[in-house]
Structure formats: C-alpha cells, structure tokens
C-alpha cells in the first residue's frame, strides 16, 4: 500500500487553513512543530550518544522550526549550535533567536568547522515551500551535508529535494540522503525517495482538515508529539 | 528544607520578563503551560481511568492554559468538556476556544450536570494574579469543587486560595483541597498548605531568570514538560 502524501500546493493550503479556520497562530504551530522535531531527535539520538547538535536554519518557517527545536533540545540537556546565515527580520524569528541567545546557545558562521564539532545535525534549511535552485550560501552547506558521516535529521524535507520529485538530478543535494526525516503534519510526495527513519510530527490536525486533505495519519501514542512510520505510512 | 517559592508579585514580574527580555509571546508560553498541564493529567489520570475531563476555565490566563490543555488532552484520546462562563474578547482566548470547537469539543453552561458526567476535573479558574473575593458565577463552582469526590487538578493555584496565604478562612474554597497541583514556572507560597500530588511545569526558564528570582527548580527528565516534586520541592 502506498503512503498518502500531501502535495506542496496542498501543504501550503493546509497551513493557511490551520491559521484561518483553524485559528492557530504561527507562534503556536511553530512551537509544536519544533517540539515534534526535538522529540524525534531525542528518540533517534538520545543524549548518551553525544550532546552536541548542529542546527542549520534557513531563512523561512523551516528555519523557525529548527530554532524552536534547538531551544527544547537545550532544555533536554543537549548543547546546540546554530548556523543561521540568512536571519530574517521577521519579528517571530528574531524572538526565537533571542530565546536561544538567552540560553547562551552559540551561533556560528563557520559551517565546516561546526560540522567537525557535532554529534548530530538538524537540517532545517528548506521545507515544503522550497522549489527551484539552492541559493547562496547554502550550496556548500548542502554539499557538506551530502559528504558528512554525522547523522542528519531533516525537517519536513531533505533540503534541496523537490517536494514532489525528490532529490535533484544533479548539483547540490543529488546525493543527499539524511538518516532521519520528520514530516510535519503529513508526509510529502518526496518520501518515496527517502530510505531512512521516518517520523510524523505536528499533533494538531483536526478531523475536518484531515478529511479535507484526505490525510491518512497514524495514531500517536500517549503524550508523544511524534510517531515513527514505515514505508507504507503505518506506525512502526 | 523548605521549598523556595515565588511570591504573587514576583510571579507577575517573571511573566513580564519572559515576554520582554525573554522574547516569548503569550501564545508560546500558554501553549507550553497548557501542554505541561495535559502531561500532568495524563500522569495522574491516564485514559484507562476514564476519558471524560471537565475543564473549568476562568476569564484570564489561567483559563487560557486550561483551553490549551483541553486541546492536547483531546489529541491524547480524552473527551474534554469545557465550562467557560466568562469568555474573554481577547483574540488569543477566542482562537484557543475556536481550536476546541474545531475538534467538536462541547462547551457547557451547566456546571452541576457536567460534574456528574466526568472522571476528572481541571480547575483553570484563577491563577497567580487572583486576589480578593471570588466573583459570580464562580462561588457556586468553587463550592461544587469542594464537595465533589471526583479528583481535581488545579492549574498554578487551587482557585479561591490566596497566593501567599493559602485557603480562605471562610466562604467558598475554605475546604477546597484539590488532589493535584501543577505549579507553572515555579511553586507559589500557597504550596505549603497543599497536601496532594505536586508537579512543576513550564520548561522554558532561562538560567538568568532562574538566578534573578532565586528559583530552585528540580531537573526535568528526558523530554517531559512536567516533574513531580515532594514537600521539600525535590524531584520524587
């Protein structure tokens, strides 16, 4: 049985619905998305496997999810470092960055050096709204993620991948295969090219929205904000 | 060893700090506070003990925490019912209520009947900013909470209790002893009059704020958003 997925267009429409008829603020949704990511990282890479987490954040909402995840991971006892080269002037993202600075979490501009000093990487560069080509300074970052042997958890999409068609045929990302993917709200079509551990996060979808977008979401357990699924989209 | 507590005045100042120098939005803080409450309820009253949860919400932030907790509890598989007689015109609270209506969660005006049809109660009526006397329509609600044998989880303070001095000498609340208390951010002085199970929630305090307010917070475990403590404030 193939997994039901949410196209890039429908993912954008669903997000809009969550904030209009759903009455969620972006602050709330991003808090819960980042919390999901932090719980998946705790599951695949508990603190006993190394506390250093490098969080690579892009300029948009995917980067915001990474900033929130980093804060929760700090509270769990990890030592995050943030690579956030294109910081948005948007008030919410600025506040999320300040929240990290208040925890004395360090920000770096030197991705290659940071990569040598981490135990795990969160790829929060591009999400479901990515299309076209990878812009500066991210091509070198994507190439470094392709080459590193440090495990990577991607948020919503392996950065550089086309949401519908998966990895690019050539250029940065053509050989990028993260170990872990956290699909937010629902998996996107690119999951059929993904071979690692797959989690669904974002436990805030109402029955109406589930029906409108024909989502087939696995059941979360207990108070978990993530659920691990197999290739067929069923709970593992 | 006595537990370190946070006076009503300092609790208000700390909240203000979280939103100014801390750069948190009220949406974020309320989301995390309500999440903490939902996790404490799951711990003391798992779904196997009965899924019906009556959430009594007051007009302010304490009520907002209750609305958020109710949403998370629905996602955990509970059946919440909301008593929210003084609904605020504040945009955030209205959105939190809409989020519940989108889950088909029912709102009731009839507290006595709702009390007969629940397995657990969340008291989110008044929090650390309460002082003076209990206003209509809440005196009858507090009396009902005093008399019921259904277990009650209070958010931040047993409603009607003075934040510094505990239960009122007479009138509604003089004999109100909830089974569970979730202190948000840090315990208030009233905890020395409280005899039930005590949790701390709100895992977002920075080292600076901890130092400024001389808080002695127990360590949370793993990804938990609550931690249970004993009479001395130490983790159980």
TrEMBL record, chains A, B:
Keyword Cytoplasm applies: yes
Domain YjeF N-terminal: 11-217
The organism of origin for this protein: Hyaloscypha hepaticicola
GO molecular function list: metal ion binding; NAD(P)HX epimerase activity; nucleotide binding
Cofactor(s) it depends on: K(+)
Function statement: Catalyzes the epimerization of the S- and R-forms of NAD(P)HX, a damaged form of NAD(P)H that is a result of enzymatic or heat-dependent hydration. This is a prerequisite for the S-specific NAD(P)H-hydrate dehydratase to allow the repair of both epimers of NAD(P)HX.
Reactions mediated catalytically: (6R)-NADHX = (6S)-NADHX; (6R)-NADPHX = (6S)-NADPHX
Note on cofactor: Binds 1 potassium ion per subunit.
HAMAP family: NADHX_epimerase
NCBIfam families for this protein: yjeF_nterm
Any one annotated GO CC term: mitochondrion
EC numbers on record: 5.1.99.6
Main localization (coarse): cytoplasm
Residues the entry annotates as binding (6S)-NADPHX: 61-65, 127-133, 156
Nucleotidyltransferase among keywords: no
Protein name as catalogued: NAD(P)H-hydrate epimerase
Location of this chain's protein in the cell: Cytoplasm; Mitochondrion
């Amino acid at each position: 049985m193939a997994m039901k997925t949410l196209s890039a267009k429908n993912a954008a429409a669903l997000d809009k619905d969550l904030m209009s008829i759903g009455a969620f603020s972006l602050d709330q949704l991003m808090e819960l998305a980042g919390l999901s990511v932090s719980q998946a990282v705790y599951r695949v890479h508990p603190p006993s496997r190394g506390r250093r987490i490098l969080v690579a954040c892009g300029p948009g909402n995917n980067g915001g999810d990474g900033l929130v995840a980093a804060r929760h991971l700090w509270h769990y006892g990890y030592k995050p470092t943030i690579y956030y080269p294109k910081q948005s002037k948007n008030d919410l993202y600025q506040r999320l960055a300040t929240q990290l600075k208040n925890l004395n979490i360090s920000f770096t501009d030197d991705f290659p050096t940071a990569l040598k000093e981490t135990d795990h990487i969160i790829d929060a560069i591009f999400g479901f709204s990515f299309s076209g080509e990878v812009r500066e300074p991210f091509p070198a970052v994507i190439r470094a993620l392709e080459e590193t042997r440090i495990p990577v958890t991607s948020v919503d999409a392996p950065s550089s991948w086309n949401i519908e068609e998966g990895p690019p045929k050539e250029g940065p990302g053509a050989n990028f295969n993260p170990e872990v993917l956290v699909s937010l709200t629902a998996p996107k079509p690119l999951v059929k090219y993904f071979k690692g551990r797959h989690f669904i996060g974002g436990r805030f979808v109402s029955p109406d929205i589930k029906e409108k977008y024909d989502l087939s979401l696995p059941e979360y357990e207990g108070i978990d904000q993530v659920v691990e699924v197999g290739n067929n989209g069923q709970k593992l």
